Fold each of these.
Amino acid sequence: DIQMTQSPSSLSASVGDRVTITCRASQSISSYLNWYQQKPGKAPKLLIFAASSLQSGVPSRFSGSGSGTDFTLTINSLQPEDSATYYCQQSYSSPWTFGQGTKVEIK
Amino acid sequence: QLQLQESGPGLVKPSETLSLTCTVSGGSVSRNSYYWGWIRQPPGKGLEWIGSIHYSGNTYYNPSLKSRVTISVDSSKNQFSLKLRSVTAADTAVYYCARNIAATYGDWFDPWGQGTLVTVSS
């Protein structure tokens, strides 16, 4: 199985900050990388697919980049409603696997 | 818009079979370009993909669960289902159903059902 490792595991930032979350794959996965946002007690929500494509309806302050083994989710101008846990997921090789999550808190 | 809703028992005894159904509304499970998937999340932990099914019956499973899992689809009811046999406490989790979009640039899940907590306990 392809292992997905996210860093950091958690972070605290202020409203308006730029936040970066990293996801590293245990082998090259080309651009087969997706990002989800999960708020407490809620289902995950798709933010980014294919490494950098913004899902319809997702605010443009979210962006994704990377290819191969290293990927980044960036939140420009962090908002209070962005407090959540973020997961990456690879779909290069079955079984699809997720990162362990990054919890983003607002200072 | 497309909505998914999980249903089934919230409590299952050890060694028994966990059975859940996902009802799809606002769209058809028979769309050729989509698969339909199950993902679970133990309390306080991360996400684990269980498996996915196409309306044609084509399925693929996580090898870690494959020996105990069956996913099926009922196009007439616009539903798909999960059966997980011989459960233990380790199978306690929130179970989500989701549309699995299988595209040129990968597979992703959108949207998701709200999730249902299944506890394995005697």
Amino acid sequence: NAGVTQTPKFQVLKTGQSMTLQCAQDMNHEYMSWYRQDPGMGLRLIHYSVGAGITDQGEVPNGYNVSRSTTEDFPLRLLSAAPSQTSVYFCASSYGRHYEQYFGPGTRLTVT
Amino acid sequence: TQLLEQSPQFLSIQEGENLTVYCNSSSVFSSLQWYRQEPGEGPVLLVTVVTGGEVKKLKRLTFQFGDARKDSSLHITAAQTGDTGLYLCAGRGGADGLTFGKGTHLIIQP
């Protein structure tokens, strides 16, 4: 049981490049979410999904896209990276939006 | 929008000392979760408190939920270097799911 896995662990992008952060969970959780964590800002919700085929925006969705084709996977796409997207990104899964969140190890992204 | 204020933002103490950190809001939460995050890792749930006035103990950690369910505290007795980390509280209340505080950075000096 691997829990929540994220790849890559570290990434450096140039402004304007695109990339996908991968997230997978093996706990059969319906709810998955993406957060970004910045110094002094805490954890902020980017997008979330309550099940395969259903996604919705969180607090800071601009510049990010998501899709949920399977229960297990919830990738986060940056279409045109900006320096403001430099952050640590966490994927989480749970039985529901109000329940214990199981977090992945994070992806540290730097946009230059 | 429901907000959770955590204090202090930073705390550095010597091993063996006691400490308390706080999580406060003007909003009522149906439950509150405490997480600990170690450097380079994701947050991990420590405890969930549900009932106003509830006290839960986890070895040297004591969690209390305020009677009005607007605040919570975490008390650590005889702190150890392994307690070092970022402590986050998260409230269950609105339709948006969990509301996270910004956390307390705790450093326990040997």
Amino acid sequence: EIVLTQSPATLSLSPGERATLSCRASQSVSSYLAWYQQKPGQAPRLLIYDASNRATGIPARFSGSGSGTDFTLTISSLEPEDFAVYYCQQRSNWPTFGPGTKVDIK
Amino acid sequence: QVQLQESGPGLVKPSGTLSLTCAVSGGSISSSNWWSWVRQPPGKGLEWIGEIYHSGSTNYNPSLKSRVTISVDKSKNQFSLKLSSVTAADTAVYYCARGYYYGSGSYRRNWFDPWGQGTLVTVSS
């Protein structure tokens, strides 16, 4: 089973700042990694698939990069609605999710 | 656009069976997608439960496989989850989601979009 770790666990930033979230896989997943955003009381929303492709309707301030075992989700300039929990997800034999990074307001 | 809606009892007794249905609207369950169940215990992360294709083919999380059954009803455009022998550890928000899944080798493309709103199932006597 491939294990995903995310860092930091919590990221405290102000609106307008740049957010950089990390996801590391215990072994290579090539470029097949997805990112989701989840706000309190809501379902997860797909942001990025295949490491760097934005899902339909996702603003350009969200970008993904990486391959192999190290991946990054970048939010170029935080909007008030971006404060949420972010999960990465991969599939080797079955889908697994990282533990999440909470982006909160500083 | 495709929308998913979970339904089912919000309270299940320990040792009983959890049963949920996910209704798909705005698209066909017979499309080239896999249909998944994912759960999230209160305050915790996401756990994939399993998936089904319209043909009836299924894949399950090995940690839950002995207790899970996922089925599809193409006539009603919906799919269902049954989880048996539940305990308090099965208390969670249960989501259904459309899965995109390609590949069969070492590397597999997979993501979930969209998701249902989720339904809280509590296991308690």
Amino acid sequence: AQSVSQHNHHVILSEAASLELGCNYSYGGTVNLFWYVQYPGQHLQLLLKYFSGDPLVKGIKGFEAEFIKSKFSFNLRKPSVQWSDTAEYFCAVNRGSGNTPLVFGKGTRLSVIA
Amino acid sequence: DVKVTQSSRYLVKRTGEKVFLECVQDMDHENMFWYRQDPGLGLRLIYFSYDVKMKEKGDIPEGYSVSREKKERFSLILESASTNQTSMYLCASSLPRGGEKLFFGSGTQLSVL
């Protein structure tokens, strides 16, 4: 079975600091990779996704993620965080070849302080 | 604007009650999913459906069942609610392709007393 590991449970950063959230998955075949964000009191929404092509994908609000196949990783980055980035971030994966459900990681809570 | 609507935002039930959580999507999506979200555990898949009257067990189906009589509606049923089913329940839908994103509802916070 697939699994997704997010390395950090809670990350605290000051505004303008750089962000990198780790994500590793266990499936060895073709995969689709996603990062979702949940702002306080809001529903989950898609930040970015990778399914083929350029392994560096850019999403909304200045976020990007890099797919490194050899490391089974899809880390999320942002060069300079803002207070409004305070949220919970979830990495998710499903198999690329068919219609299969997403498997989510346990999430990383990001707190950005002024 | 596309929508996944869950019937209740907050729900309080007693142990042993039968509980229905309703979800409706207006995007004509084939796929629908029920997840539960717990602090520190992320989202765990309970059941999913790829078509009307079709259902598949997810990772944690015990104590739950589902119904999909119409394409737009996917119901989660707790046959006999227990306190360990206190959780946030999230419904989602998507198109039937591997790289398609999920559209989520706002969630139902269920408390079982």
